[in-house]
Fold each of these.
Amino acid sequence: MSDTIDNAFVPTKKSAPDGFRHGDDLAKDHAHQHDHPRGWRRWLYATNHKDIGTLYLWFSLVMLMSGGALAMLIRLELFQPGLQFFQPEFYNQMVTMHGLVMIFGAIMPSFVGFANWMIPLQIGASDMAFARMNNFSFWLLPPAALLLIGSFFAGGGATASGWTLYPPLSIQMGPGMDMAIFAIHLMGISSIMGAINIITTILNMRAPGMTLMKMPMFSWTWLITAYLLIAVMPVLSGAVTMLLTDRHFGTSFFNAAAGGDPIMFQHIFWFFGHPEVYIMILPAFGIISEVVPTFSRKPLFGYASMVYAAASIAIISFIVWAHHMFATGMPITGQLFFMYATMLVAVPTGVKVFNWVATMWRGALTFEAPMLFAIGFIWVFTIGGFSGLILAVTPIDIQVHDTYYVVAHFHYVLVAGSLFAIFTGFYYWAPKWTGHMVNQKRAAFHFWNSLVWVNVTFFPMHFLGLAGMPRRYVDYSTQFTDYNQLTTIGALLFGLTQVYFVFAIVLPTIRGGALAPAKPWEGAEGLEWTVPSPAPFHTFEKPPVVA
């Protein structure tokens, strides 16, 4: 197998995969790297999709480390029962900010970074459709992050209402809550502008001959995700605006004492919140759908069914929101509807898992870092999917609602799911971004440690939840000590593994390493592999023609 892996790094002499032809010689096309800005101006005024993609990726990495540091502090506190380091108020602030930072600061911006980098390369576009709006949509994020992190230092500290911001707690919080609301507004505006840009780019700027049903799966999943963002981000903005007016302007949308309805907030929030889950996983599906065929040396099994499955997931995601609310009291017909609708999501998701496995079946597999993480993703994401199916069953959900079983479920989906897919995409496209190959031994060390410790961290949480341990509590009964200690050890080692990823893999790959050919992976297909590595500043000055 080592021979096969080594051979994957041999520069190929083919200028392009079959099916793509170019009007002029590639060298001429990519000689025009003059006139782009240098130094800080290049980044502050960035309009090139690659530079903006890089900014998104660096931002998300910083936020991942920030949210991870909060997670480490949370787990240290939970190593033993009783209060160890933090008062309950501050503990709840950390739990809330960990969720907000990871979702809005780490996972979502990293996928937007992938979209900015790869969609124009994949569809043969010269850039994103609205270059200056692209720049603005990124630069809204650092002030939003400063508002979020800075809320710890506001009077009364950060919001401690949980990342879901449920009233009445969120109405009673101090100024840190207002900072979180404004941060969410900024991030929402950024997401909507990014989504408009992606939709316009994909629909209007594809290379001649690239029909929608010839597009790479990553571009397809992002097109669907962008429509989801436009549909649900205004809903979240509306919900937090109503919170703001309840807090400061005398309205009573959610204030029960004045005739408002706090349950209404949950309905509005989860009408955003459940499609949001798929916003964070559909681009991951796209990345896995690129990597598995490459390292199986086979076309993706059931391409059309993968497209329809992704669209089906997006559509169904709008009719399942109240499965988060079974415990609030709901008519039996409502419970049955949301239970069956939630189970229905398993069908298109199962289609995707089946197609990935079918793609690998009898393929000429090699196990470089992107494929390791892709297979790891399929396995651990499936565990998260099954626990989600269990939570869809109303009587079970009412029993384990707000216990660690739920924490286990969504961390399997978002850490072992979204984050593993982000690592997959990094290892797959880093040669195209940096011009250097990633050290495969270090990458394998990163993978195996991530896979082991993510399971050691989150699998015991299923047992804690089934035994009745509630989440978001700083203290717990002594009967839960052993599993909590195991989880804390796993979390600390998983966190150290990601520090290793930054300092032993990301930074050395940027600085140097073996030079990457235009097509570093033997089985790779697509327009992005027809341009040099690193991809030049101006990519397709003359559109390639897809045969």
Amino acid sequence: MFLPYRHISLKVLAPWLGALAVGAVLVISVVQWMGYTSARELSQVAVDRLKLYHGTLHSALEKHRYLPFVLSRDEDIRELLTAGDGRAGLAVSVNRSLSATNQKAESDVLYVLNRQGTTLAASNWLEDRSFVGHNYAFRPYYKDAIEGRESGFFAVGATTGVPGFFMSHAVPDDTKGARGVIVVKVDLRPLQQQWHDGGEHVIVTDQNGVIFLSSRDEWRYRSLSLIDRDAMQRIRSERQFAGADLAPLALKRLKVFGEEVFEIDGQRFLVQKGPGGKPGWKILYLAPFSYITERQHTVFLIGSVLLFLCLTGGLFIRERRQKLFSAQRAREADRIEAINEMLRVEVEERKRTETRLLKIQSDLVQTGKLAALGQMSAAIAHEINQPMAAIRTFTASARVLLNKGKREQLGESLAEISSLTERMAKITGELKTFARKAPVELQEVDLRVALSKAIQLMQAVCEQDGVVIDFEDTGPETQVKGDVVRLEQVFVNLLRNAADALRLASEKKIKVILAGDEKYALVRIEDSGPGIDISNMDQLFDPFFTTKEVGEGMGLGLSISYGIVQDLGGDIRVENMKDGGACFIVKFPLVAYAERSFACSA
């Protein structure tokens, strides 16, 4: 489904990596948000559970609070405390009464201490571990009660080894302050068992941080922190925990998602604390942190799956689009190949057509020359007839002089005849050169020579039509790359065109200017005619376009001239002059400038 690795460029891979990074950040953010949300929810649950367990603890303790007070008003107990051990029958009666009351109240043990802290009567008087006869003056509940204070004290029983909560009340004596102390022991093990069976994590600590109630047995009689020496000595002296070492838990206190967290033996718990109902006590509810992590893991898993599905879907769509694009490109390639084949055929046809057109153009150039020769034939015949007539005259004169023996004068006649034949040879030579179909071979030529020959060739025609050619040579360098015959053809066509434009003009004048600068040679052919209609400017060099009457021209002269100038690397343009008349401007790059440009580019 996916593209091969070697076909995946960094440019293609970058958006997907960016999307993956954004998706990963989004998933992590949602996981963090779920952590905070779950912590708040768990904290609220912990607060509610803490209130519940605080209530059960308070209920378990307070439901027996009345017993010491009520029993302190019992006359038999008061009398026993007054008589002491002297009345055995009274002690048995009190023991039986305490046993019945203890059973009814569902307390653990009820017993009576005298002023010295010795037990005179107890509800467990018949058991092997009876409290009767034992002295508990070292217990804080005795000390507090004998001094007139109500007391509550948790400790491990010094006689039975059974932990419990001891509540005491003094038996008042109007003369001596207190006759003794009534004590009730409440067994809190069933409460702990309820917590344990409920799968909860609840602990209760005293003022020293010792855990004396816990739903987990391994935490009981451990401390949340190290107990200082004075507190430890006091605990030992009161024999509160029956010699337990009270070692601190392997506890780390953390702050996670803004909540207090305990890490105990590698397990984390979110903690909520509250007063334990007695001075210095604290009750702690520990909610397993796994609730939060499990929800985070669930969200992470769901987010990762969704991210994977999105990326997979995106890659699938991309692959699908790539396939469609590849198919489209294949169709385009086939279409382009077909078009290329058509173009190749068309190019070959165009090349053949171009070859034919070049041949036709060459033939048209020659035809144009012959047409020009035809137009010039009358004037040239006139020019030749004049020297022919003069030759006949001089020949007749030479015979006469020869017969008369005047040889000196005969030489003059022969010289004149020779001059006239040279003139005729020059005219016919120019015609032969102009009419010849010369091969195209560019070489260094003098533009001035080609222009002069063209003017000389057109001079007779123009004189016959009354047109004056004024040649102004400003004397610039005129060496250009070209072909003399073709350059002559261009200038003859332009002069012929200018002469035709002057047929109806009052002033028939053609001005030819040869100028230039360090880069170009410039030929301007100006006429004094009516100029060129602005609407015909764009078509002037088009083949077969002419403004002459039907039969007077084929519209090829300027088109052929334009093609010749372009082939020779020059430029030709036309414009109307301000004072009237048209001006053709032909420009060719000088040989020296072309060579300098080539050297610079090389």
